[in-house]
């Protein structure tokens, strides 16, 4: 019979409790407890337990399913523990002590530092800096060595077509060889190094060989698109079909077959115009000007390759830090892009497809990311420019991440409801706008952190909306005076000038758009961006409706009063999918005068509008009589994962870097696609 009962737990609670779920501190020391006495079914009722004392017992291990989701402090001194890896089931653990467990060594210290990402104190010592080194620097070094060992000694051993038995054999040889030959750090940590090397190697093999083995490569002729991909990819797979992405992320395999036509019957409401059909056919037949470079699943929940449900929502290219380059829009960003979706934010090198960094918050669903560059004091009064990433989502909290330091240094509890989108002011680097489901858009000054990352954020302004804001954009010619927002029930503008005394403000204008025979203000605007200083691109949930309109000719800045209705001066309408599906947003590349928008079939519609903008800029510029067709449609290639096609693919967002070298496509099925312009 177990020594632990409900009555004992209630009695040993500090203070004593009447219900297990209310216990936050529990002392189970000096009870001669063994591992079998820790009943997972009983412990699973301690949902709010934060501190647990198990010192002076006879424990040689921990059961794997104690289910203590909120445990922060654990004392295991004076036991007989032989292994620490089961402690990974307590991910929120911050303080851990296990002194006087004679079988535990320095190698076990390093294991818990790697496994417990929130651990700050180990056996009474602050291990923050050392733990960061173990989790990041050590892991990067070992990952590099493991990958190099595979490339040098094992990759060429795989035949072009291989069987499961051949894979099993080479896996066994590789794991044995890599643990023997990959050496890093002092000999006193050799056990930890072998443990990490095995873990990294198994993840590497699971991602690369596992999916490549099951990929369905149809016996069709390879297309030019696929040949380009295999030659350009820095991490091409053994059979030159699949791409090996960052080893912590599952692999997505691109088959060398052309995309099959969709033979499903169209409903009457989804009939395409003849012009649209011709445009799609031309785009599919014309020589590709862009090629798919990488397909990544880097936002998977629990790194599961079976996760095709996580929605990806936002991506922004990292700005360059050189001040001279920042003034040139063509070179104002690097090839590194931040993406968000599910519980994670990723930084991806678009050229190599490497996931450089990954930030996770287990209880969050991220909807938006934004970059700013802050000049921070580093030491001895010296200052240096650093890129800061803001990420926000369902919890209404903004996370502030100093990317170069791999450190989330703070958070702002901005709203009580989810944040739909965020953006920084181009005029004030510390000014951040957050648009929330609470029908408010807030302007924050996030401050500049000191060398110890102390900072002070303050709310400067609240803009009241009549419906949920979905997209926001600052007017390029006056970013400190006017903000435009696409909302669930229309398109609105606010005066955001801070010299006005009013801290909470209603909208100043609502815009009308054509609706069959009349004009209407009531429609969902789920896409909004400026093509240049004056031309606004907005997308309505009305089927196939993307308008280009003039800000200066639509907004009467001289008018007085708030909540005025103004008619948008339409310059043109873009021909797009006939779907009525919402939240497939658009983006622009102002330097190249391009508009991008994905659709419900995984395709990306691209519009080169450079031949139209000069005419629109004139005072007498008239609306284009016909809808402007796309310049090109990038069709989604046929992907197979474990031999099967992913479910229906929606393109939630698509963003190009300012130089239009890379195009990043975010989907509804947890796949990030990166295209490169030839």
From TrEMBL:
Repeat region (WD), residues: 412-446
GO annotation (BP), single: chromatin organization
Cross-referenced InterPro entries: Leu-rich_rpt, LRR_dom_sf, LRR_LRWD1_dom, LRWD1, WD40/YVTN_repeat-like_dom_sf, WD40_repeat_CS, WD40_repeat_dom_sf, WD40_rpt
One Gene Ontology cellular component annotation held by this UniProt entry: centrosome
Protein's UniProt keywords contain Repeat: yes
Boundaries of every Leucine-rich repeat and WD repeat-containing protein 1 WD domain copy: 290-677
Domain of life (superkingdom): Eukaryota
Compositionally biased tracts (Polar residues): 265-278
Keyword ATP-binding: no
Region (Disordered): 215-240, 255-288
Record protein name field: Leucine-rich repeat and WD repeat-containing protein 1
Native species: Pycnonotus jocosus
Organism classification: Eukaryota, Metazoa, Chordata, Craniata, Vertebrata
């Amino acid at each position: 019979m177990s020594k632990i009962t409900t009555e004992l737990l209630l009695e040993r609670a500090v203070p004593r409790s009447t219900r297990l779920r209310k216990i936050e501190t529990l002392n189970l020391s000096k009870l001669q407890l063994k591992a079998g006495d820790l009943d997972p079914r009983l412990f699973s009722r301690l949902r709010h337990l934060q501190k647990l004392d198990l010192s002076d017992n006879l424990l040689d291990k921990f059961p794997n399913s104690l289910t203590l989701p909120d445990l922060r402090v654990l004392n295991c001194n004076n036991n007989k523990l032989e292994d620490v890896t089961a402690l990974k089931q307590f991910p929120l653990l911050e303080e851990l002590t296990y002194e006087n467990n004679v079988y535990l060594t320095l190698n076990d210290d390093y294991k818990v530092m790697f496994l417990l990402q929130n651990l700050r104190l180990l056996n009474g010592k602050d291990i923050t800096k050392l733990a960061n080194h173990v989790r990041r620097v050590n892991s990067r070094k070992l990952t590099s060595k493991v990958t190099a060992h595979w490339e040098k000694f094992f990759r060429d051993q795989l035949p072009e077509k291989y069987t499961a038995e051949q894979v099993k054999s080479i896996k066994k040889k590789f794991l044995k060889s890599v643990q023997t030959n990959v050496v890093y750090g002092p000999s006193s940590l050799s056990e930890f190094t072998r443990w990490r090397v095995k873990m990294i190697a198994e993840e590497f093999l699971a991602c690369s060989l596992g999916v490549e083995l099951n990929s369905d490569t149809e016996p069709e002729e390879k297309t030019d698109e696929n040949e380009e991909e295999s030659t350009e990819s820095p991490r091409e797979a053994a059979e030159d079909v699949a791409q090996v992405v960052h080893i912590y992320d599952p692999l997505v395999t691109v088959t060398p077959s052309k995309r099959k036509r969709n033979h499903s019957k169209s409903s009457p409401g989804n009939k395409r115009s003849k012009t649209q059909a011709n445009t799609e056919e031309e785009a599919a037949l014309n020589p590709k000007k862009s090629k798919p470079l990488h397909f990544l699943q880097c936002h998977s929940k629990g790194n599961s390759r079976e996760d095709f449900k996580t929605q990806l929502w936002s991506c922004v290219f990292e700005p360059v830090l050189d001040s001279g380059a920042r003034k040139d829009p063509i070179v104002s960003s690097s090839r590194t892009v931040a993406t968000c979706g599910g519980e994670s934010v990723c930084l991806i090198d678009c050229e190599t497809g490497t996931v450089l960094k990954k930030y996770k918050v287990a209880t969050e669903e991220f909807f938006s990311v934004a970059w700013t560059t802050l000049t921070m004091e580093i030491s001895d009064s010296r200052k240096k420019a650093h890129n800061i990433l803001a990420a926000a989502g369902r919890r209404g909290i903004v996370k502030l991440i100093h990317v170069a330091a791999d450190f989330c240094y703070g958070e702002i509890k901005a709203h009580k409801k989810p944040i739909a989108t965020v953006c920084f002011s181009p005029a004030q680097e510390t000014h951040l706008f957050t648009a929330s489901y609470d029908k408010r858009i807030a302007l924050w000054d996030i401050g500049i952190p000191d060398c110890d990352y102390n900072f002070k954020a303050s709310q400067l302004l609240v803009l009241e909306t009549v419906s949920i804001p979905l997209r926001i954009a600052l007017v390029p010619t006056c970013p400190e005076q006017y903000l435009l927002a696409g909302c669930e029930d229309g398109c609105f503008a606010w005066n955001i000038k801070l010299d006005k005394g009013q801290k909470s403000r209603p909208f100043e204008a609502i815009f009308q758009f054509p609706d069959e025979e009349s004009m209407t203000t009531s429609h969902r605007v789920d896409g909004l961006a400026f093509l240049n200083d004056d031309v606004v691109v907005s997308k309505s949930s009305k089927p196939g409706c993307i308008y280009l309109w003039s800000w200066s000719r639509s907004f009467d800045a001289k008018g007085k009063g708030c909540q005025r209705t103004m008619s948008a001066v339409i310059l043109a309408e873009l021909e797009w999918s006939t779907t009525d599906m919402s939240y497939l947003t658009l983006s622009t590349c102002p330097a190249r005068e391009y508009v991008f928008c994905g659709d419900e079939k995984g395709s990306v519609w691209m519009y080169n509008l450079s031949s139209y903008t000069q005419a629109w800029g004139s005072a007498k510029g008239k609306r284009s009589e016909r809808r402007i067709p796309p310049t090109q449609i990038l069709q989604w290639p046929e992907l197979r994962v474990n031999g099967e096609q992913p479910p229906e693919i929606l393109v939630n967002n698509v963003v190009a870097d300012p130089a239009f070298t890379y195009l990043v496509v975010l989907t509804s099925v947890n796949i990030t696609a990166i295209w490169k312009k030839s």
